[in-house]
C-alpha cells in the first residue's frame, strides 16, 4: 500500500468538512475522487498533502506516519499536489516555475533547468517556457501546475480539478498527458467533476459526500449506486449531467 | 554584460569629474543608500518579506564600531564583525517566531523591535543615550578605515556595493534565489513543491541583516558620529524600502536606480528649501510612496519593461 488514510476528519468551527474519511491507495493506481460541491474533497487533499492538519485520524505514506508532516516534507517524500485554483508563480516565467519544482531533486541550476525543460516538453509547454505564468490563461496555468509538481519527482500526485475548464481538444490532450504520467510509474488521485475524465482514466472511483466515502468501486458500477445518485441529484447538483 | 561595467566605470570616474566636496558628499550618500537598499532587497524584495525595521541592523552595525572605540579605544573596524553578529542574533530573534506565521506579522514585528531598540538606546548611558557616540577625531589611515577626506570612503563604499551586487547576482542564479522568488510569488505553492519556506526566509533575513549592518558600520566610521535617530530612526528603515521600491524591489539594480534618483532629489529639496530638518523628507517619502502605490507598484524597473518595447528598444528579459 502506498498511502492509507484512516478515519481522517477536519473540522472548521462547527463544520465537519472531512468526517471520518478512509482511503487506501496502491502503488500504480489511478483513482477518481468525485462528489458534490462542498463534499470535502479539496480539504481531504489538503490533509493528504500536509497542507492542513487533520483534526483526527492518521495518514501513512509508504510506511511512514505523515499525519503531522509539513507540505515540504510531503514533497520530499514524493507526495505532489495541484491546487483547485491554480497557484502558479504568476510573475515568474513558465520555465522558472517548473525549475522551482525541479530544484527539489536537482540542487544545481544546470541540472534543474535541464530537467525542467524535459518536463515542459512532456506536458507540451516547451514553446512557452519564457512567458510569464500569468499570461497563460487558466488551462495553461493548470497544465503548468502539473508540470511543476511533476518536476519534483512525485510518487503520488493529487490532482484537484486540474482538468476543469478545458475545451474538448485540450481535455483530450490533458487526458493523454495524465496517462503518460501514469505510465512513468506515478500513482494518481484525480478530483474531477467531468465524468468523462473519470470514466476514461480511473480504474477505481471513490465517491465523497459530507466528508466521507459513501461508495467506491469500478466507475461504471459506482455511478449506478443509489447513494451516489442521491448525493448528487438530491442536492440538485449542477455537474452531474455535464457529461460532455 | 556591458552595461554593468559601464556603470561601474561611471562610478569610478565620478569623483574625478565632480571633485568638489558637495558632489562627493552626494556620491558617498548615494552609494551608502544603494548598499542599504540592496541589502534590504534580499529579504524585502526577492523574498517579499517587507521589513520596515531594517534600521535595527543598520543601527547595530553603526553603534558597535563607535562603542568599541569609545569604551576600549579599539579601532572602530573591530566593531564591524561585532555589529554583524548582533544583527544576526536580532535577525533570528525577529525571524524565527514571525516566519512561522503568514500575514503581516513579520513587518509589524520589525517595526516594533526596531522602535524598542531605539528607545532603549536613547536612554542607555553606555551607548551614549540621546546624545550618541563619537569616533576618532582625526583620520588615522587604512589600517582602521578612518580618513580625513571623503574620497577613500567613496571607493570603499563602491567596492562594498560591487561585492554585494555580485553576491546577489550569484544568488539569483542558485536554488536559494529561485526559492526566494517562489516564496514571494506564493508561499503555499512553494511549500507544496518542497521549498523549506521558513528556513529560506530566515537565511535571507540573516544575509540581508549582515549586509545592512556593514552599511551601518560604514556610515558611522565615515561620519565619526552616531545617535539613536541616525542609527535606529524609522526614516533609516523607510528610506531602504522606498529606494528599493522606487527602482524595483526584487531586481538586482532596482535599489541602485532608486538611490540614483532619490538621493540627489532629497539633497536638492533639502538644499533648496533650507534643509530645515526631516519634515521635508517625510513629505518627499510620503509622496513617493503614494506615486509608487498608485501608478507603478513594480517600480521603475516594471515601468521600463512596459514602456521600452513601445519605443522599439530591445531589452533584456
Ligand atoms: N479554510 C476553511 N475554513 C472554513 N471552511 C472551509 C475551509 N475550507 C473549506 N471549507 C468548507 O468545507 C467544506 C468542504 O469544502 P471543500 O473545498 O473541501 O469541498 P470540495 O469537495 O472540494 O468542493 P468543490 O467541488 O466545490 O471543490 C465546504 O463547506 C467549505 O465551505
Ligand atoms: Mg474542491
Q: In words, what does this structure look like?
A:
- With about 240 residues, chain A is α/β, with parallel strands linked by helices.
- Chain A has 2 domains: about 1-80 and about 155-245, P-loop containing nucleotide triphosphate hydrolases (Rossmann fold, 3-Layer(aba) Sandwich); about 85-155.
- Chain A has 9 helices and 10 strands.
- Chain A has helices at about 40-50, 70-75, 95-100, 110-125, 135-150, 170-185, 195-200, 220, 225-235; strands spanning about 5-10, 15-25, 30-35, 55-60, 65, 80, 155-160, 185-190, 205-210, 210-215.
- In chain A, the strands form 2 sheets. Chain A has a 6-stranded mixed β-sheet, sandwiched between helices. Chain A has a 4-stranded antiparallel β-sheet with strand order 2-1-4-5, covered by helices on one side.
- In chain A, α3 runs parallel beside α5 (about 135-150) and α4 crosses α5.
- The model of chain A is unreliable at about 240-244 (pLDDT under 50).
- By secondary structure, chain B is mostly helical.
- Chain B has a domain at about 25-235.
- Chain B has 14 helices and 2 strands, in the order αααααβααααβααααα.
- Chain B has a two-stranded antiparallel sheet with strand order 1-2.
- In chain B, α2 crosses α12 and α11 (about 235-245) packs across α12.
- The longest helix of chain B has 27 residues, at about 195-225.
- Chain B is globular.
- The model of chain B has no long low-confidence stretch (mean pLDDT about 85).
- Chains A and B meet through α2 and α3 of A and α7 and α8 of B.
- The structure holds adenosine-5'-triphosphate (ATP) and magnesium ion.
Amino acid at each position: 500500500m502506498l498511502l492509507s488514510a484512516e478515519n481522517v476528519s477536519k473540522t472548521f468551527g462547527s463544520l465537519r468538512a472531512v468526517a471520518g474519511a478512509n482511503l487506501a491507495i496502491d502503488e500504480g493506481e489511478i483513482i477518481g475522487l468525485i462528489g458534490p460541491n462542498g463534499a470535502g474533497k479539496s480539504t481531504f487533499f489538503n490533509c493528504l498533502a500536509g497542507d492542513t492538519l487533520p483534526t483526527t485520524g492518521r495518514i501513512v505514506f509508504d510506511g511512514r506516519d505523515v499525519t503531522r508532516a509539513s507540505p515540504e516534507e510531503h514533497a520530499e517524500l514524493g507526495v505532489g499536489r495541484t491546487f483547485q485554483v491554480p497557484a502558479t508563480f504568476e510573475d515568474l516565467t513558465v520555465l522558472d516555475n517548473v525549475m522551482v519544482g525541479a530544484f527539489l531533486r536537482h540542487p544545481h541550476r544546470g541540472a534543474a533547468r535541464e530537467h525542467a525543460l524535459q518536463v515542459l516538453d512532456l506536458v507540451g509547454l516547451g514553446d512557452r517556457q519564457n512567458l510569464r505564468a500569468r499570461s497563460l490563461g487558466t488551462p495553461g496555468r493548470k497544465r503548468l501546475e502539473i508540470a511543476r509538481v511533476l518536476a519534483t519527482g512525485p510518487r503520488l500526485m493529487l490532482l484537484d480539478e486540474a482538468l476543469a475548464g478545458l475545451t474538448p481538444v485540450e481535455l483530450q490532450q490533458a487526458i493523454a498527458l495524465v496517462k503518460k504520467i501514469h505510465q512513468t510509474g506515478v500513482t494518481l488521485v484525480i478530483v474531477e467533476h467531468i465524468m468523462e475524465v473519470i470514466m476514461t482514466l480511473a480504474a477505481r472511483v471513490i465517491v465523497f459526500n459530507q466528508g466521507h466515502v459513501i461508495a467506491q468501486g469500478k466507475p461504471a458500477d459506482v455511478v449506478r449506486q443509489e447513494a451516489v445518485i442521491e448525493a448528487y441529484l438530491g442536492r440538485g447538483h449542477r455537474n452531474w449531467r455535464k457529461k460532455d | 554584460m556591458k552595461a554593468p561595467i559601464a556603470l561601474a566605470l561611471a562610478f569610478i570616474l565620478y569623483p574625478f569629474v565632480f571633485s568638489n566636496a558637495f558632489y562627493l558628499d552626494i556620491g558617498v550618500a548615494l552609494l551608502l543608500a544603494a548598499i542599504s537598499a540592496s541589502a534590504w532587497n534580499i529579504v524585502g524584495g526577492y523574498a517579499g518579506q517587507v521589513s520596515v525595521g531594517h534600521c535595527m541592523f543598520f543601527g547595530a552595525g553603526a553603534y558597535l564600531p563607535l562603542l568599541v572605540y569609545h569604551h576600549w579605544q579599539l579601532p572602530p573596524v573591530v566593531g564591524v564583525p561585532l555589529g554583524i553578529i548582533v544583527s544576526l542574533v536580532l535577525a533570528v530573534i525577529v525571524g524565527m517566531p514571525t516566519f512561522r506565521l503568514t500575514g503581516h506579522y513579520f513587518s509589524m514585528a520589525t517595526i516594533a523591535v526596531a522602535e524598542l531598540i531605539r528607545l532603549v538606546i536613547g536612554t542607555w548611558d553606555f551607548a551614549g543615550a540621546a546624545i550618541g557616540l563619537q569616533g576618532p577625531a582625526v583620520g588615522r589611515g587604512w589600517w582602521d578605515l578612518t580618513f580625513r577626506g571623503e574620497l577613500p570612503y567613496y571607493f570603499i563604499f563602491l567596492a562594498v556595493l560591487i561585492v554585494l551586487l555580485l553576491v546577489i547576482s550569484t544568488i539569483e542564479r542558485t536554488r536559494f534565489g529561485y526559492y526566494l522568488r517562489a516564496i514571494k510569488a506564493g508561499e503555499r505553492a512553494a511549500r507544496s513543491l518542497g521549498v523549506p519556506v521558513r528556513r529560506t526566509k530566515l537565511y535571507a533575513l540573516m544575509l540581508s541583516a549582515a549586509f545592512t549592518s556593514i552599511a551601518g558600520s560604514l556610515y558611522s566610521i565615515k561620519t565619526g558620529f552616531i545617535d539613536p535617530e541616525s542609527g535606529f530612526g524609522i526614516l533609516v528603515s523607510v528610506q531602504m524600502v522606498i529606494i528599493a521600491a522606487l527602482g524595483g524591489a526584487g531586481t538586482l539594480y532596482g535599489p541602485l536606480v532608486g538611490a540614483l534618483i532619490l538621493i540627489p532629489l532629497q539633497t536638492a529639496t533639502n538644499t533648496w528649501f533650507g534643509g530645515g530638518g526631516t519634515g521635508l523628507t517625510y513629505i518627499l517619502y510620503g509622496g513617493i510612496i503614494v506615486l509608487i502605490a498608485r501608478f507603478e507598484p513594480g517600480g521603475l524597473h516594471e515601468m521600463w519593461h512596459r514602456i521600452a518595447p513601445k519605443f522599439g528598444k530591445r531589452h533584456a528579459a
